[in-house]
Specification:
One of its GO terms (molecular function) is ATP binding. By secondary structure, this protein is an alpha/beta fold. Helix content is 30%, strand content 26%. The strands form three sheets. It has a six-stranded mixed sheet, with helices on both faces. The protein binds adenosine-5'-triphosphate.
């Protein structure tokens, strides 16, 4: 299902956190949002999963304004992995994942055998099936993150919204998660801080700076050394990935202060 942000503005306390943001996520595509801390990425995502109501503009899902849909209807269509997490109660992993089916359940209906298999399959895909009986509060940050992605998947959404999903994940699970997104047919909007991962997984990237979209398009067009310098204040060397051709950014640490050099040792 297509998702469209059309001149979305969010004002709070007399300040625009997001200003006239327009961005399309066509069906089945992965759109990345990148930008410095505080540039409005999470706020923009919150408009998509309806935790924040835009003060201007519109979010459209399949051509229909989100604000015109019932909360139940949009909850069936949009799944979100948020920064807030939302797993404070001591449920088991299996129970947390099953909660992803809530928007589809009427009354007190128990999960069908098909839905239970869906939950198991999502846990298997996210490598957390072996944790099914563990309490969610006993998990490591990365294990918990994978459980929450599994919960989002069992919701069978049309649109998946992910706020820094690779947080806490080791490199193997980062690559597994992003590969899974690429293999899925979901429409995905994802906030990523790692520009190289964003270049590898996203069909399009939108760059936010101080609440405004300053660039958008395919990664190789957007992620230039000039943009990275202007938006992030960082010097980067842009090279093609030797195997995939994706844009990759190489960074150098600031040069260390000149150390006092020992005079050459006198051999005599
Ligand atoms: N409820 C709120 N009330 C006031 N200001 C807010 C609120 N939520 C966010 N902000 C401010 O809005 C700006 C954008 O925040 P947001 O969380 O969207 O940024 P972000 O790009 O996701 O940042 P990060 O990369 O640090 O996660 C920040 O300056 C933040 O302090």
């Amino acid at each position: 299902m297509d998702l469209e942000l059309d001149a979305v503005t969010v004002e709070m306390g007399g300040r625009a956190l997001v200003e006239r943001l327009s961005l399309d996520a066509p069906e089945g595509r992965i759109v990345g949002l990148v930008g410095p801390n505080g540039s409005g990425k999470s706020t923009a995502l919150r408009c998509i999963y309806r935790a924040v109501k835009p003060t201007g503009g519109a979010v459209r899902l399949g051509g229909r304004e989100l604000s015109g849909l019932s909360l139940a209807e949009s909850a069936r269509s949009v799944a979100a992995l948020t920064q807030e997490g939302g797993a404070e109660l001591d449920f088991t992993v299996g129970e947390v994942v099953a909660l992803g089916r809530t928007p589809h359940l009427r009354g007190n209906r128990a999960l069908s055998p098909g839905e239970r298999e869906l939950c198991r399959s999502a846990m298997r895909r996210l490598d957390v099936l072996h944790l099914a009986d563990r309490g969610i509060l006993t998990l490591s940050g990365g294990e918990r993150q994978r459980v929450l992605v599994a919960r989002a998947l069992v919701q069978e959404p049309a649109v998946l919204v992910l706020d820094e999903p690779t947080n806490h994940l080791d490199i193997k699970h980062q690559i597994a998660l992003l590969s899974m997104l690429r293999a899925s047919e979901l429409t995905v909007v994802v906030v990523l801080h790692d520009l190289n991962l964003a270049a590898a997984v996203c069909d399009r990237i939108g760059v936010l700076s101080a609440g405004s979209l300053v660039a958008s398009g395919p990664p190789r067009r957007v992620l230039t050394a000039e943009l990275v310098r202007e938006v992030f204040g960082v010097t980067a060397t842009v090279v093609p990935h030797p195997l995939t051709g994706d844009v990759q950014l190489l960074y150098s640490l600031s040069p260390p202060p000149q150390r006092h050099r020992e005079p050459p040792h006198d051999q005599n």
